[in-house]
Task: structure prediction
Amino acid sequence: MDKINAIREKIGACDDIIIEQLAIRMGHIQEIIAYKKATGIPILQPEQEKKQTAALEAKLGDNEFEEEILDIFKYIVKNSRRIQAKSLFDYNIFLIGFMGAGKSTVAGELKAKLEMDRVEMDQMIVEKQGMSISEIFDEYGEAYFRNLESNTLIELQKRKQTIVSCGGGVVMREENQDHMKKNGRIVLLTAKPETIYERVKDSTDRPILNGNMNVEFISELMEKRRARYEEVADVTVATDGKNVTQICEEIISKLIKLDNTSEEE
Result:
């Protein structure tokens, strides 16, 4: 028993060293983020993570615990992203734009890259109501659905560092802008009517487009909403011809630039 206790003491000593070194490592992560933010270096650098993994594998060589150590480092990298997000964005990021602009796709990618929480407003409403969006529109009407959106935004004020993918019409109510800006930044994603049509033409859960699934109607509706979208947006990112990584990089870059400008003022 004494031998086991002695070994456990050694493990405890190892834990103390690991904790100390992890804290130091995390501090260095914060230094890197601060430098990138100040100098305009791209925040997202996936190639650097690949280099780190390759270097670690080289260091481990034939270590008998290679698989386990690599698994641990996956979590270290994941938490490095979380530290990065905390250093950059202490608020919610609301993605707005016309249906099919890419809000859900971009929200998912931002979640993976920044290790932030993610919320789909429409999905929250569907789960709470136990009905699809189309069913809510059919049974209760659009005004009722818009009330649900406003109530959801009020609820989201209790959260922070969350990426929120909003419904296409959520900003048409002036009060919703106030709900979002109390603890967040609003990012407008745009796309051409032709692009929107290609993205949504096979969808059956777009009540506003029911019977009007064509480029002309989409273009007209987008034009009606355009001024409002642009009025409430803190930053705007066009999604046409870009992959999701490029879109995310542009969002992060523009938000950082906006935050830096705000700090200077």
Summary: The CA atoms of residues 44 and 249 lie 7 Å apart. The radius of gyration is 23 Å.
